[in-house]
Every structure is written in C-alpha cells, then in structure tokens.
Amino acid sequence: MSLFDYTLRELQEKLHNKEISVTDLVEESYKRIEEVDEEVQAFITLNKEAAKQKAAELDQERGNADAKLFGLPIGVKDNIVTKGLRTTAGSQFLSNFEEPLYDATVVNKLNDAKSVTIGKLNMDEFAMGSSNENSSYAAARNPWNTDYVPGGSSGGSAVAVAAGEVPYSLGSDTGGSIRQPAAYCGVVGLKPTYGRVSRFGLIAFASSLDQIGPITRNVEDNAFLLETIAGHDKMDSTSANVEVPKYTESLTGDVKGLKIAVPKEYLAEGVSTEVKEAVQAALKEYEKMGATWEEVSLPHSKYALSTYYLLSSSEASANLARFDGVRYGKRAEDAETMLDMFKRSRAEGFGDEVKRRIMLGTFALSSGYYDAYYKKAQQVRTLIKNDFEKVFEDYDVIIGPTTPTPAFKVGDKVDDPMTMYANDILTIPVNLAGVPGISIPCGFSGDGLPIGLQIIGKHFDEGTVYRAAHAFEQATEYHKQRPSLGGARS
Amino acid sequence: MSRISKDEVKHVANLARLAITEEEATTFTKQLDDIITYAEQLNELDTTGVEPTTHVLDLKNVMRKDEPKKWITQDDALQNAPDKQDGQFKVPSVLE
Fold it and tell me: Where are the transmembrane segments (chain A) (predicted)?
C-alpha cells in the first residue's frame, strides 16, 4: 500500500499524530516518480530540491499544522505559472522559460495552504489536444495500459494521480481537458463553474472557457481542494464574487429525491456499448439510493463541437499573439527584421496543432468571415447555454458519460484532427454553458480501461455535483482500483 | 467546393505571423477546409435575433481604481528576455 492510498484528510491526521513526516510524503512522491515516470511521462519539470527543503521546513513547524493542505505534495499542470519554476505549457516555445516572475493565484493559495509543489505536469501544447500526443516533450501514457493515451490536455495531471506519483493535482479544462483524462485514467476530475477559480497566471488558451480545477483519487479530496483554490480574485476580473461554500459539508451520502436528467444525445450513436452499459448501471445505482432519473433532450448538442472549435480557436489566436520572441521564450536566430523574427520564432516554437488552431481562429476573425463564423458560433453558444438552463429548471443534475469510448491507442487519431476533436463531444457543451462538471470512475472496459461518469450541475452548484458523485462513490468500488504499474502494487 | 484556398491559407498565416512552408500550406489548406466545411453545419440553425454569448456570467465592466502600485522591476521584466541592451528588450530592425 502506498501512502497516497489514504485520503488527504487521513494524511493530515497522520502528519498531526506524527506517524509520518512531510519529508516522508515528499520522498514517497519522488520515489514513485523514479519508479514509474519513465514509463508514463507525467512530469515535464521536477521541483525536487526546493520541495525537499520546504518539507524539512514544514517538519520543523509541525504541530501547528492547521493550514489546509499542510505538507501535502501536489503536482501542477504546466500551464499554471510558478514563480522561479520553469513553466512550458507543453510547448518548445517556452522550453527556456526558467524564471516566471510571479505565482498564479491558485499557486499562491496552495502556498498559503502550505502544500508542497512536486513538479510541473505534462500536457498537450498550450492545452490544445485530447491525447497528450501534442506535448512537445514526451507524450504521457495511460498508467492502466501504456499502449493507450491518458487523454488530454491535462494528461500529466491525471496520470500522476492515477499512477500514485502525487495524491492530487491541478489541471485546466477548456473543452474537457480535466474530465476526459480523469475518465481515461480512472480518477476524479472537476471543471468548476466558469469564474469559480481565478485564472490569473493560467496561460490563456480560450479565456471565455478556461477553468482550473482539481484532479484527485476520490470525491472528498476533490471537494477539499476546490475549497482551497476557489473564490474571487481582484487580479481576474472574470472571477465571480460568489461565496465559496464548504464543499466537503455537502458530502452527506444522501441523494434521496435527487432529480437526474439524462440527455438522450449523450447516449446516442457514437457512444460505445460498454460506456452506455456502465452509465445505465450507474443510473440503477442512483435509483437504489432513492434518486430519480428521466430522459431529456439537449437539442443543440450536435452543434457544440463546431461552435467550440470556432470560438476557442478564435480566442486562442488572440491569446497566443503574445508569443513573439521579444520578452520571453524562444527566438529564431539570425532574423533580419522584426517581422521575420516574429514569424520564424512562432513557426519554430509552435507544433502543428497549435498552428492549425491559430490559423483557424485568425480565419474566423478575419474581415469578411467574422459574422459568418465567429458571431454565428457565439449565437449558437447562446442556444446551447439555453438548453442547459431549460433542463436545470426541472432537474438537479445532468448525468451521462464523460467520453464516448474509453482511452484509445497511442497514434490512432493523431493524423486526423476531426476524429480527435470528436472525443470531446460530451464535455465541450459544459464549457460553452459555463456550468460545472465532474468525471468519476464508473466501470472498466473489457480491455481493463477505466470508464468515466460525468455529472453536470447548475452554475455555482458544485455542492450538488459533489454530493451526487460522492454518494455513487460510497456505493461502488471503482475508485479503489489501482493500475499495476511498475510491478509495485496491484 | 473548397471553403478556403491555399492563397487564403498563406494570407491567414501572414496575419497570424506564422512562417509556413509550401508543404505546410498544402496540408493546412486541406485540414482547415475539412474543419470549416464541418462547421458550416451551424448554418442549419436560424439564429436571427439570438444574442451572441461572449461571456457566460452576467458580468459587466468590472472597474477598479486606477492607482499605480509596485509590481515587477525592470530587471525582473528583462530576466527572461532572449536579447536585451541598456535595460530594454532588443529586437532586430523594425523597418524592412
């Protein structure tokens, strides 16, 4: 058994009772990384020296360990800026970005809560991708079977938790980038309501969709972590000034009378039989616990993918304009003019998927096409958002699969952008509507790969999402399964 | 009918400040055309009179006081610069 099989609260209790030290936890983390990370490639950069030093310091002050995440080792997705710790966003462009000047607000909050940052986690370049194969470092692998992708873009964040390298991590989710890898790797991942968590210091992909969220081994840890990172931030004017409830208090185990909506579009063609069966079994479980469910329709679901790619790429084309080789990052050598330097630095620093999306976005925003593509997509976004609002007039949560299939094999979809995009068809609408969504483990495929159940809630109602997720977790054993990686455990 | 020509792709690449090769232009033309063709499905929907959503929360002009405060120093700002001189970022010739 690993120390990381305990919940965060159990670990804190052990720290408090002096059964273990912070140094033990940090060493457990690096030991496991040594054992398995070559196989799974979850980390891009390790923070070993500083982490060990911080652990030693925290061990000195143990006893007044009332800080929320005292001594608990965490991994942070590499698009979240960490002062003095290299931050690459999975891109070659930032491979030399060794000295970020400030900490993201979420990192400040982690530091205030006295967690220990173990390292920076692998991801698709600038969070654009669904398989981690767009990382311009080594692609992370699925710990359940390393021939398979871990999902993306927060692949490293899900892998590190599933493989037992850290007990919890942060990811970011623009179109499914927390929930999809959480589903593929059999862990718990939440995309909070848009505005729930500050985006200050998150390297922007699509600013109207991006959210930072927690990836953990169980629902309680997830709620515990969200309590720590959520809240209004004056550095992010799109963060919401809405009180942060104690999410852990909503984990009552009681879902009697909970009204569940199941969109027929989420169990339609394209969703594999195994996934459908796992979701149907989950709904039976909810019935047993006294919840009720009914089929509903989110009629504009099939337009979500187009809407998302037009809007997110448009926003990305503007956000990624900052990477010009002037102030930080890579610069092409021997350019004669500044314009040439811009173009070649970007050409050399960005991978194909990033270029493709910058071009799609530039096209959609360009003169003559703006109304036909960008504005149209924004209007359809309204229709998609209205679909959700209508369903939430009568129901507490929406439940369906997180992804149409379990993880696919490395290399299977990498050459075909449209097939790759289709992976996110069930997670994208949630970002467009700005509502919160969680993925929790709800079964395994015949090949032994995890299947994720997605629970979607109303704006700022993460509490109900967590309550529903936790009740299911209490009733099942899926979250207790561990991949038999590195031969260390079964 | 293709939605985007190779010349348009080159034009867009220039607008996006991306140097692309002839070969890349060919690949991107095909791929962008596929994506745009797929996205044309949005035209099935009549969106007359539908307000565009730019932001999901009901936020309007968040204001703060315009007060100077300490943030990062000039030295800090130059710390990650690929090239610098006399306390400033150095770039190649701006004029062609």
Answer: none
- pTM greater than 0.90 (yes/no): yes
Q: What are the structural domain ranges in chain B?
A: 6-44
Q: Which of A115, A130, A177, A314 is an active site residue?
A: A177
Within 8 A of A241 by CB-CB distance, chain B residues are none
**Does a structural domain hold residue A393?**
no
> How does pLDDT run across A397-445, given as a tens digit for each residue?
999 999 999 999 999 988 888 888 888 999 999 999 999 999 999 999 9
Measured from the Cβ of residue A42, the count of other Cβ atoms closer than 10 Å reads: 31
Could you report the predicted ipTM of this complex, rounded to two decimals? 0.95
Polymer length in residues for chain A: 490
Please count the CA atoms within 13 angstroms of the CA of A276 that sit on its side-chain side.
Answer: 11
Architecture field, domain B6-44: Orthogonal Bundle (1.10)
DSSP per-residue codes, B12-70? HHHHTT----HHHHHHHHHHHHHHHHHHGGGGGS--TTPPP-S-SS-------------
Q: Which of A136, A153, A301, A313 is catalytic?
A: A153
Which whole number is the average pLDDT over B61-88? Answer: 92
Task: Tell whether the model's pLDDT for residue A130 goes beyond 50.
Answer: yes
Question: How is residue A189 written in tokens?
Answer: 């991942």
Report which of A449, A448, A393, A401 is spatially closest to residue A425, judged by C-alpha positions.
Answer: A401
∠ CA A391-A394-A396, rounded to 5°: 85
Residue B15 buriedness (CB in 10 A; 0-12 / 13-18 / 19+): middle
Residue A489 maps to a domain = no
Q: Range of A102's domain? A: 3-252
Q: How far lies A10's CA from each of A47, A75, A162, A221, B27, in Å? A: 25, 19, 18, 10, 53
Q: How many domains does chain A have?
A: 1
Q: Taking the C-alpha atoms of A195, A197, A199 and A204 in order, what is their torsion angle to the nearest 10 degrees?
A: -70
In this structure, is residue A145 part of a structural domain?
yes
Percent of chain A with pLDDT over 90: 93
The 10s digit of each residue's pLDDT in B3-38 is 899 999 999 999 999 999 999 999 999 999 999 999
Q: Which residues of A touch B51 (CB under 8 A)?
A: 379, 382
Nearest-by-CA chain A residue for B46? A380
Structure tokens at A102: 């400030």
Which pLDDT tens digit goes with each residue over A451-473?
999 999 999 999 999 999 999 99
Q: At what angle do helices A219-229 and A8-16 cross, to 10 degrees?
A: 80
Report the gap between the CA of B52 and the closest CA in chain A (Å).
4
Task: Return the pLDDT at A488.
Answer: 42
Least confident of A105-109, A224-228, B71-75: B71-75
Closest by CA to A118, choosing from A44, A56, A4, A26, is A26
CB pairs under 8 A between A and B: 168
Nearest-angstrom CA–CA distance, A61 and A100: 28
DSSP strand pairing (A168-173 vs A73-77): parallel
Residue A250 appears among annotated catalytic residues:
no
